[in-house]
UniProtKB/TrEMBL annotation:
Transmembrane segments: 201-222, 242-262
Physiological role: Subunit of the oligosaccharyl transferase (OST) complex that catalyzes the initial transfer of a defined glycan (Glc(3)Man(9)GlcNAc(2) in eukaryotes) from the lipid carrier dolichol-pyrophosphate to an asparagine residue within an Asn-X-Ser/Thr consensus motif in nascent polypeptide chains, the first step in protein N-glycosylation. N-glycosylation occurs cotranslationally and the complex associates with the Sec61 complex at the channel-forming translocon complex that mediates protein translocation across the endoplasmic reticulum (ER). All subunits are required for a maximal enzyme activity.
Protein's name in the database: Ribophorin II
Localization: Endoplasmic reticulum membrane
Signal peptide positions (record): 1-21
Ribophorin II C-terminal domain: residues covered: 196-292
Source species: Gracilariopsis chorda
Keyword terms: Endoplasmic reticulum, Membrane, Signal, Transmembrane, Transmembrane helix
Annotated InterPro entries: Ribophorin_II_3rd, Ribophorin_II_C, Swp1
């Protein structure tokens, strides 16, 4: 357990106080968030060597997923110069589950510092950072190089809230407002089942079906031949031109049905056939009237 190791180091520091040359000077704790490109501090706390053992700075601290937490500590050596220690930790303890997370302060410039990005930490450990849970926050300092070991109790009631201010509340939606945004939370894994290949019909049956579809075309041409209206046998008079026009309209209907099978939808097919119906009706009626006259 990480906590056990921390307190073991604190215990060892009491034994070796005579050889230590580094002492704690001051520390600061901040909770901040970014709004319109500007960093705003939600909470600030500071302590020094004389006031570190006072009660917790805040009775209650509320944090949100968009916040970031930073802790900074300053240590001095015998010459009053900034020094670094490897035994400074920022500790969070979940008061409901008893679990804890510990972050090591590292040397940055003249001080020791640690930054905790809550958005990243929540994604990494959803079981620890839970809505409406409370946390104990401590800065633990101790080690062989320190003249004394101590703990700064920053707060014992830090509450994690999804949204604690009106700025983070979701605005009311209208009747016709729909959420089309990409979901931020992870969705369950979807495994597409592998469908077995469909069994195709026998090739002889496919050929027979194709022959049945194409058979009306030679039947139609043969009927025109027997009736004496085949385009190549017509005379170039008015009646012959009417017959050719009527036959072209019939072929256009067949072509429209073929396009419906290959590419068009039913609406496009209806529109084309509605336009072709007009010349087909007029030419067919004209041919019937001339046949009746004769």
């Amino acid at each position: 357990m990480a906590v056990l190791h921390v307190f073991q180091l604190l215990l060892l520091s009491f034994v070796f106080t005579s050889v230590c040359a580094i002492r704690f000077e001051k520390a600061a704790f901040k909770v901040s968030y970014v709004q319109v490109g500007e960093k705003i501090h939600r909470y600030r706390a500071a302590t020094d060597r004389q006031s570190i053992n006072q009660p917790a700075t805040y009775d209650q601290v509320q944090i949100q997923p968009t916040d970031s937490i930073s802790c900074q500590a300053t240590f001095l050596d015998d010459d009053q110069e900034p020094a670094a220690t490897t035994q400074a930790f920022l500790r969070f303890e979940n008061r409901q589950s008893g679990a804890d997370n510990i972050y090591l302060l590292r040397k940055r410039g003249r001080d020791m510092k640690v930054d905790v990005n809550l958005a990243r930490e929540i994604k990494a450990d959803l079981q620890f950072w839970r809505h409406n849970d409370t946390y104990l926050v401590q800065l633990i300092m101790g080690g062989l190089e320190l003249d004394s070991s101590t703990t700064w109790s920053i707060t014992d009631n830090m509450r994690f809230k999804e949204a604690s201010t009106d700025a983070f509340k979701e605005p009311a939606r209208g009747v016709f407002d729909f959420d089309v945004s990409v979901k931020k939370s992870l969705l369950p894994e979807f495994i597409s089942p592998i469908t077995p290949p469909e069994k195709r019909a026998h090739h002889l049956l496919i050929i027979a079906a194709l022959a049945g579809v194409l058979l009306p075309i030679p039947v139609l041409l043969f009927g025109w031949w027997k009736m004496g209206v085949f385009p190549l046998r017509l005379k170039s008079d008015d009646k012959g031109m009417l017959v050719v026009g009527f036959e072209l309209c019939v072929l256009a209907h067949i072509a429209a049905l073929a396009m419906f099978w290959l590419k068009w939808n039913i609406v496009t097919t209806w529109k084309v056939m509605a336009v072709l119906m007009i010349p087909t009706y007029l030419l067919g009626r004209k041919l019937l009237s001339e046949s009746d006259d004769k």
